[in-house]
Structure formats: C-alpha cells, structure tokens
Amino acid sequence: MPRMKLVEVVRAPQTSDATLAAAVRFVQSIGKLPVVVKDSPGFVVNRILLPYLVRAGQLFSDGHDPETIDNCMLDFGMPMGPLRLLDEVGLDVSLHVAKTLSTAFPDRMEIPSILNELVEKGLLGKKSNEGFYLYEKGKTKPNPNIQPGASPQSSAQKIQDELTALMSEEAARCLDEGVASSAADIDFAMVMGTGYAPFRGGPLRHAHDTNLLKRSFY
Predict the structure, then answer these.
(1) Region (Disordered) spans which residues (predicted)?
(2) Which residue segment(s) compose the domain that 21 sits in?
(3) How many domains, the chain?
(4) Are 46 and 104 in contact (CB under 8 A)?
(5) CA separation, residue 20 to residues 11, 14, 180, 189, 214 (Å)
C-alpha cells in the first residue's frame, strides 16, 4: 500500500553491520520507517498477510460474500478487509506473491482457486475495475458477476477469530525462525506496513494480551 511508510530492510547472511546501518540510515533519511528482517520468503509483512488472504479467498469459495468477510475484519479494526485489500493490491500481483510463498510453505499457503480463476478472466481488482468488487463511477459494490460458493459454514465471529489467529500464528513462526529480532519489531512492521488494528498493537501483542496462542510474547 503506497501510503504506508514501512520499509523492510533485508539482511542477507553476507550483509555487514556497516552496510546494514547505512541502509537503515538511508531509509530514515527519506522519511520512511525501517525494520530489519532476515532474507527469507515474504520477509515479515507478506508472509504474515498471505495465510490471512488465502483463507479469505477460501471463505468466499465456501459461500461467504465479500462484504461479510471484509466487515468482520473492519470490526476488528483493520483499515480494509482482506478481499478489498486483494483488489487494491491487484489480483495478479497477489497471485504472483502467493505462488512464491506457496512454494516455500505449501502446508499452509495453498493458492485459493478463486484467485487463479479471476486472474485468468482478466479480473485484476481495482485497476481493471473488477475483482471481488465492482468499481464504477466512483462507487464500490460486491461484484455481481462472480458468486460465492453455496454453503457458508462460519459465523461472523468465527471468521474474525480464524483470520486474526492465522496472522498471529504466522507472526509467531516468524519470531521463532528469527525473521525479525523481536515481537515488537514484527508488530511494528504489521501496524505500520498493513494498518493492522493499531489499538490492538499487532498480531503478537494481540496474541499475548488474549492468550490466543497460549504463550507470552512480551
């Protein structure tokens, strides 16, 4: 999202401390907010977002309409819902990222079939005026040309709980693998890089405060 100020500064195994420090200073000098991350698929932000976005696509295929899914996350405090975010980023761009991460993490980042289907039809989201939503004459509404599946199974609260848990779980994996050096860095990246509900403090702060993952992060 172009208005976000976060920059993930990637440290490769061969990156010297001096080079890293220079990169951080440069990012700060152009008015951006750096967070240092390890060179790994998706870094922090895309890696944590993708399971959430993938599941949102699956929920659509299960029968939940876009507004129901997105409103669950708006109620949680996100600046926009996951399907609207996919449209904003571009479904083709999202599919490219999903292919990379599904190769790295096939057990939990399988590409939802609806994403392939929409891209194959040339429905790329907002930039093509049509994706999960229809964009015309300055108005946005669920796209009547695509239909969700026929058997929705989850309540709004269950959808919200599941989607937020997916982000917290992936954030915990990033911490355990050293993709970022602290829970605070991961939460900072998600709040500043995605608008993750600021009053909740980030996916690990949320998990810590609610005991969601049955472990402490702070």
Answers:
(1) 139-158
(2) 6-44+178-210
(3) 2
(4) no
(5) 7, 10, 14, 17, 35
